[in-house]
Every structure is written in structure tokens, then in C-alpha cells.
Design a protein that fits this description.
The complex is a heterodimer of chains A (328) and B (246). Helix content of chain A is 71%, strand content 1%. Chain A is mostly helical. Chain A has a two-stranded antiparallel ribbon with strand order 1-2. Chain A contains 13 helices and two strands. By secondary structure, chain B is of the alpha/beta class. Chain B contains eight helices and twelve strands. In chain B, α4 crosses α5. The longest helix of chain B has 16 residues. The chains are: A mainly alpha (328), B alpha/beta (246).
Chain lengths: 328, 246
């Protein structure tokens, strides 16, 4: 944190806000500690193939986390991420599997379904004035239910080869989802940290009245942010669909919890105004490493759920402590 | 023709009539005080001029064009800036970002048709503006939330003056300031007048009003109850208008 010496010039030029590549040190530290600890605890942890595994397992959560980051930046929340992921995957799978459409349609369908769900979230929140928490909680139920209705609760098996390649292909030995994950991270970071779109998202979360007075079209922007978040949930749905070779209506259950945790852990302020995609990337890796480690140590998945919940609370607490220290 | 002409502005919020037909004219370079009791409708009237509220009736003309119903962004484009009482700053953003809020210059990314904020230019120009105003802000990279009240106000002022406005509206700019800082703001208003920039000053401090203004307009229960040249009135008379004793 910058020291409290604003009267003196020149001012300290450190701190998250000044450097657009800076990430919260605590989350990086947590990641390193986890990696070191697990290297000692498990002989299988420290290997290239296991790290690729972690990246692969993190890719879906990471992409969702980037969506959460944009929405939370503007003091919103998207609880429907996991359900929209499932609905997008299901509809994408049905489009090629039942309707017999060519494989590129599955890609477009996944993204479009996700973006459309986001659009509905955004319009209900920004135009109808329903709190984001309620709107997206409603969408969590509706999207999940719709996915189950479309498939009668059964996974839709069998994707064309190009789709399977997206999920299971390994060019240069690296899983395709990892390439997509990294590419999305770079684009999302650029948009959030370097463009007006990203700047305005954070300004809206910081002081909505000021944003409006300065000519930023707050409602329109907010809708766009939910569309981005929905679009990324659709992409996550596509990645999931491609990896397991089926559109599963129960996919991504509770993933929103992990995605939001990743964002908060990475230093994005739960109440808006400050957000970092790179931070979310690290937050998602923490979650991925944690899960991988618990798997390697043969800890029951019941405990893993508890761990995720505990980390969420811990991350928010860390954030509170940080802010209390930052205020004069 | 006047720079700004308000003609019969009406506004209600639910059953509450806030403005009941306000007429007001302001010329280029004129400094006009807007006074009135709490709830007289001053801030609402100003927020209608800046496009935050839409009027229920009446017309607004600025610089020869009808601007009724325009958005805050369009109205800023036309040359009306407001320094809000709460300053309307994004506390987690730095000084430079706040000064350019809503108007960030952009440049192409590697020659591609992708626009990114031109951060170097923003810092450079913000720096120049802060220096020009003689404001003491530690660095344009400093988050605004960590500055003192007076420094924050300097940022709000710098933002209002960076884009060559024709009219600057100030809502209680001196209410929260120390004596020396008040003098600085008053000097600034005089300087704006020299540059032919019009100012509307909302203030409860009549000493400030009589020190820098050409005219004083009193608002009471949503109506203009007096509109006099400073030279032809007195503080007692203005107070009487404000409280409705005259």
C-alpha cells in the first residue's frame, strides 16, 4: 500500500491503481505458498504434466472468473454464471446433435445463448431496476431449469471432431482449453485495464453519480457488462462441452461461487471500483492448485466444497482488512 | 442574445413541485449568484441545465441551440461544466483519470482499429492543468480518495476547466474550505470572467457572492423571486428575498 504521506511530493507511485499490471501481493503469495507446500506434501504435484492439468482444470473457472470481474468492477454481481454455462453447453450440443447443424454453429450457439442470458440480466437490472443479486439469482434457477427441460435431465452425448479438438486437442502437448484460457485472459486484461469500456466499468462501481454526471451512459454500460459476463459463461460452456464431449445440464454447478471467489481473491473489490483480470487469473490458479492438491492428497470432494467456501470468506476478509488499512 | 436562456422550466418529483416555471438569462462572461433556502430548487435547476434531470416543461437554449433533453455528455460537449457539491469524483481512480473522466483521448493499439486510452497524454495534460491552476496535488497518479478535501476540489475544478467551457456552474464551492482556499476559488472566478467564461455560483455565503458576482438571483419555492445587479442591492435585501420577508 502507498504510505499516507500525500502532503509530500513527489508522491509514491506504487499501489494497485497506478500500475495496470500490478496484482495484489497477498494472492500471489498465497499461490506460491500453496505450490511450495504441495510440492513437499505430494510427490506427484511438481511436474509439467500436473501443471498442465491444473491449467486445464482452471480454464473453465478462470473464464467465468473474468466475467465475474467485469460485473463486480461496476458494483454488480452475477450469480448465474454456472447455470448459464450449463444452458449454453446444452443448447450448443443440441444444435449439432439433434438439429444436425454444422459444427461451427455449436460454437456460435454457445456464445449467443450466454450473451443472451447476460442481456436479460442486464436489462432487468439496469432498466427495470431489480437488484443484480435477485436478477442473477433468478437466472441461476431459470437457466439451470431450462437446460434440464431441453435435455430431459440427460447429457447430450457425441460432438463432431472439431469441437472435441477444442476441448481435448493438445497442440505442442498443451491442452487447447489452456490456449483459449490464456488468450481470453490477455484480451480481458487489455479491455479492463486499457480501454474506456473497462475504465468506465470501474468508475461506475466507484461512484455511479459521478459517472452519470460526466456523461457516461451508465445503464447502457451496465447492460453491456452483463452481456460480456454472459458471453464468457457461454464460452466456458463451450469449453466444458468440448472437454467432456457432451452437453450436460448439471455442468458447472456452484461454479459461480468459485469464479467470484477467484475474482475477490485476486483483489477485485466486492463493492466495485477496482478490478483486475490478472488478479482473477491468480485467484483462479489458487483455486485450481488447491483443488488439484486436495485431489492428489486424496481428500474427499466434500471437504473441497468446504475449502472453496472458506477461501471465499477469507478473501473478502482480506479485502476488508486491506481497505481499512488504506483509508485515512 | 444571451449565452444561456432558461424559459419556463418546470420540474416535479412525484407529488412535489420543485420548479414552477423558472426564467433565467446569463450572458458570456457574466458571474451570476443563485441563492435561496434549502429546498428552493437551486440544485435541481442546475442538474436540469447539465442534463442529469429532464425538465417537465420549458426550454433551455445555450449558445443559440436548443439543448432541452440532451444527455449530460452532449451538454458537456457544448461547453457547460459543473463543479458538484459532492465533487462527483471517482475516489479509487487517480487524479489524471478523474480530470479526463468521460473524455479520455484514445490511440490505436499497434495501428489496429482498436482504441485504447492514451494514458501518456492524459497524464501530461492533467499535469499541465494542475500546474496552470497552481493547485497543490502530490501527483496526477495519486488516487483521489487519498487527497485532502481542498485537493479533491482542485481536481474537480481542473476537470471543469480543462476542456474550454463557456459556462461553469459551481455548487457551494466554498462551503467546505478554509479561508485561504476560499480566496483561491474567488480569484479563480474573477479569472474566468476575464476570459469571458460565464459562471453560475450557488452559495449560502453572501460575502462571497458580493465579492465576485455581477448579479444575484434568488429562488424561493421553485420560483425566481428577485433578479438584481449586485450594485443595486444589499445583503439585507438579498436575505429578505431568500426568506420571503420582502
Amino acid at each position: 500500500m502507498a504510505a499516507d504521506n500525500s502532503a509530500a511530493a513527489p508522491a509514491p507511485q506504487s499501489g494497485l491503481r497506478d500500475n495496470r499490471f500490478a496484482v495484489r501481493l497477498e494472492s500471489l503469495l498465497v499461490l506460491v505458498i500453496l505450490i511450495v507446500a504441495l510440492s513437499f506434501l505430494s510427490p506427484y504435484f511438481l511436474s509439467v504434466s500436473n501443471f498442465l492439468n491444473i491449467l486445464l482444470a482452471t480454464s473453465v473457472i478462470g473464464v467465468l472468473g473474468f466475467g465475474a470481474t467485469f460485473v463486480i468492477a461496476a458494483a454488480g454481481i452475477d450469480l448465474s454464471l454456472g447455470s448459464v454455462l450449463a444452458l449454453s453447453g446444452v443448447v450448443g450440443a443440441l444444435s449439432v446433435n439433434s438439429l444436425g447443424l454444422p459444427w461451427p454453429v455449436a460454437i456460435v450457439t454457445c456464445l449467443a445463448v450466454g450473451a443472451f442470458c447476460g442481456l436479460i440480466n442486464g436489462v432487468l437490472n439496469a432498466k427495470a431496476g431489480i437488484p443484480a443479486f435477485i436478477v442473477t439469482l433468478g437466472m441461476l434457477g431459470v437457466a439451470r431449469g431450462l437446460g434440464l427441460v431441453f435435455t430431459n435431465g440427460q447429457p447430450v452425448y457425441g460432438m463432431p471432431d472439431p469441437i472435441i479438438f477444442l476441448g481435448q486437442g493438445r497442440p505442442f502437448g498443451v491442452p487447447m482449453p489452456v490456449f483459449i484460457f490464456i488468450a481470453v485472459a490477455i484480451i480481458a486484461h487489455f479491455v479492463l485495464a486499457f480501454t474506456r469500456f473497462g475504465k468506465y466499468a470501474q468508475v461506475i462501481g466507484d461512484n455511479e453519480g459521478a459517472a452519470r454526471a460526466m456523461g457516461i451512459r451508465v445503464e447502457r454500460h451496465r447492460i453491456a457488462l452483463y452481456v460480456v459476463s454472459g458471453l464468457l459463461a457461454g464460452l466456458a460452456g463451450l469449453l466444458f462441452l468440448a472437454r467432456v464431449n457432451s452437453g450436460d445440464p448439471t455442468a458447472g454447478l456452484n461454479y459461480e461461487l468459485t469464479a467470484i471467489t477467484a475474482a475477490i481473491l485476486g483483489g477485485t473489490n466486492l463493492f466495485g471500483g477496482r478490478a483486475s483480470v490478472l488478479g482473477t487469473l491468480i485467484g483462479a490458479l489458487v483455486m485450481g492448485v488447491l483443488q488439484n492438491g486436495l485431489n492428489l492428497l486424496a481428500v474427499s470432494s466434500f471437504y473441497q466444497q468446504m475449502a472453496i467456501g472458506a477461501v471465499l470468506v477469507l478473501a473478502v476478509w482480506l479485502d476488508q482488512v486491506n481497505r481499512a488499512r488504506g483509508q485515512r | 442574445m444571451s449565452l444561456l436562456e432558461l424559459d419556463g422550466i418546470k420540474k416535479h418529483f412525484g407529488p412535489v413541485q420543485v420548479l414552477l416555471g423558472v426564467d433565467l438569462k446569463i450572458d458570456a462572461g457574466e458571474v451570476v449568484a443563485l441563492v435561496g433556502d434549502n429546498g428552493a430548487g437551486k440544485s435541481t435547476l442546475m442538474k436540469i441545465i447539465t442534463g442529469i434531470h429532464k425538465p417537465d416543461g420549458g426550454a433551455i437554449r445555450f449558445d443559440g441551440a436548443d439543448i432541452s433533453g440532451h444527455s449530460p455528455g452532449e451538454i458537456r460537449e457544448r461547453g457547460i461544466e459543473m463543479i458538484y457539491q459532492d465533487l462527483a469524483l471517482a475516489r479509487m481512480q487517480d487524479v489524471a483519470s478523474n480530470i479526463f473522466l468521460g473524455r479520455e483521448p484514445t490511440r490505436k493499439l499497434l495501428g489496429l482499429p482498436i482504441r485504447m486510452i492514451d494514458r501518456a497524454r492524459i497524464e501530461q495534460e492533467a499535469e499541465a492543468m494542475i500546474r496552470k491552476l497552481g493547485a497543490r496535488v502530490p501527483s496526477v497518479r495519486h488516487p483521489v480518495g487519498k487527497l485532502s478535501g481542498g485537493q479533491q476540489q482542485s481536481v474537480a475544478i481542473a476537470r471543469a476547466l480543462t476542456f474550454n467551457p463557456k459556462l461553469v456552474i459551481m455548487d457551494e464551492p466554498t462551503a467546505a474550505l478554509a479561508v485561504r482556499e476560499v480566496e483561491h476559488v474567488l480569484d479563480l472566478i474573477r479569472e474566468l470572467k476575464r476570459q469571458k467564461i460565464a459562471t453560475i455560483l450557488i452559495s449560502h455565503r453572501l460575502t462571497d457572492v458580493f465579492a465576485v458576482c455581477d448579479r444575484v438571483v434568488a429562488l424561493r419555492h421553485g420560483r425566481v423571486v428577485s433578479d438584481e445587479a449586485i450594485a443595486n442591492t444589499s445583503m439585507n435585501a438579498v436575505v429578505a428575498h431568500i426568506v420571503g420577508a420582502a
